[in-house]
Amino acid sequence: MNKITPKLYGKYFNLLALFSKKKAAQKAFEVFSTVRKGRVLPQQQEYLNRAKDQVLEIAGHRLQTYRWPGTKETVLLVHGWESNSFRWRNLIGFLQEANYDIVAFDAPGHGYSSGKNLHLPLYGQCIRKVIETYDPKYLVGHSLGGMAILYTEYNWPNKNVEKIVTIGSPSEFHEILDHYQELLGFNDRVLKAFEAYGLERFGFDIRHFSSSKFVADNHKKGLLFHDELDVLAPFHASEKVHARWKGSRFVRTKGLGHSMHQPEINEQIVAFLEE
Predict the structure, then answer these.
(1) Are residues 6 and 81 in the same domain?
(2) Fewer Cβ in 10 A, N or C end of the chain?
(3) Do both 15 and 126 map to the same domain?
(4) Which helix (H) or strand (E) covers residue 270, if one does?
(5) Residue 18 has pLDDT above 70, yes or no
């Protein structure tokens, strides 16, 4: 059923586009941005409930934030697609040992935050709001969270942010969209309508949603992690970002997967922040 259902969506979009390409694009975007998992699970509740901080309002959403206080600089942690702030539990332990002030939040549609949909411009607005509220010096993002951080820095650079870490993050939105088209099997008529809808709604050509473009003029220090065998975000994504980001350092791994919760990764992140 999991294989059949996406194809049914694709056939529906193809049919709808014969009558209205814009409606087909709107429906395709709605399905694309719908969050299907990532809410707080029972085994995650106790850990997150102890750290609940403010609820911030932005773009019609209520964002749940978390804080693990420390006496050193503030580090903001930004999770990926269909995840939540619990995914940072291992890194948080290392940061607490180093006595950093740690902040995280659940994106719209994730964790305890409101909503059912998430897209990159919305995530960027949320990150900007959290940065303005907590004034972090360091940003760490996993997967889509890393891409969203770079998008935020590109659109609303913050002079107080000094270092950025991304972990297994995608780079080119057009590659994500190509995968979406392949998964659902919709035709190029729908694809072009989707691209036109994105330009009309967000003012960006699809190919400008690109981390490698976002970092072209970024002069802050960066640390990028990516596993060669990552099946969710292509390894070449971070290679491309590193090539354009003059202040970045690239750590390639093999066999650590997409999540990268391993102690050796967390130790390197803390070491980078302390340089």
Answers:
(1) no
(2) N
(3) no
(4) helix 263-274
(5) yes
> For the chain, what is the domain count?
2
pTM: 0.96
| Secondary structure in 3-state letters for 144-168 | HHHHHHHHHHHHCCCCCCCEEEEEC
What is the Cα–Cα distance from 107 to 62, expressed in whole angstroms? Answer: 9
Q: Do residue 257 and residue 146 come from a single domain?
A: yes
Q: Say if residue 2's pLDDT is above 90.
A: no
pLDDT band at 171 (very low <50, low <70, confident <90, very high): very high
The answer on 141 and 130 residing in a single domain is yes
**Which residue range(s) make up the domain with 258?**
39-172+210-274
79 C-beta neighbours (distance < 10 Å), count: 26
Distance CA 32, CA 120 (A): 12
Tell me the pLDDT tens digit for each residue of 202-228: 888 888 889 999 999 999 999 999 999
Q: How far is CA 120 from CA 3, 147, 150, 255, 259, in A?
A: 26, 8, 10, 28, 20
What does the block give as tokens for 20?
């209205």
Scanning 70-156, the segments in alpha helix (DSSP H) are: 89-97, 120-134, 144-155
CATH of the domain at 257: 3.40.50.1820
